[in-house]
Amino acid sequence: MFRLWCKLFDDGNHLLNDTVVINGDDTLNRTKKIFDGISKACYQFDLSEPIWLDSNIAEFKRHSKVRFNQDNFIEHIDFRYMEVQVIEED
């Protein structure tokens, strides 16, 4: 079981919205599960998918958690950042 927790925060670091995306497909590798989870979470939040910058990739490799802010989205966002964290892996 693979679970990804996606959260939206405002300027005061208050949680606005969150969702947990579960992926039980054993045929997908970790990277594909992460991208699939982010895609599903963004669909639920009615957001475009964020763009991964080199700093995001490095942060995610270190902590299995990453924050996406306005720099990662093409359109304007009405929250401060989106945090994505792996909370369970196979």
Task: Characterize the structure shown.
This protein is of the alpha+beta class and 90 residues long. The protein is 29% helix and 32% strand. It is built from 2 helices and 4 strands. The protein has helices at residues 30-45, 54-63, and strands spanning 2-9, 15-23, 65-68, 81-88. Strands 2-1-4-3 form a 4-stranded antiparallel β-sheet. It is globular. The N and C termini lie close together (5 Å). The model has no long low-confidence stretch (mean pLDDT 95).
Q: Strands across the major sheet, in which order?
A: 2-1-4-3
* Number of helical segments with 4 or more residues: 2
Helix content: 25-40%
**Principal-axis shape:** globular
Which stretches of 5+ consecutive residues score pLDDT under 50? Answer: none
The biggest sheet amounts to: 4 strands, antiparallel
Give the helices and strands as they follow along the chain. Answer: EEHHEE
Beta content: 25-35%
Structural class: alpha+beta
Count of DSSP strands = 4
- Overall radius of gyration: 13 Å
The separation of the N and C termini measures: 5 Å
Roughly what is the average pLDDT, rounded to an integer? Answer: 95
Question: Gist?
Answer:
The protein is α+β, with helices and mostly antiparallel strands and 90 residues long.
Question: Secondary structure elements and their pairing?
Answer:
Elements lengths: L1 E8 L5 E9 L6 H16 L8 H10 L1 E4 L12 E8 L2
Main traits of this protein?
4-stranded antiparallel beta sheet, alpha+beta, 90 residues, 4 strands, 2 helices
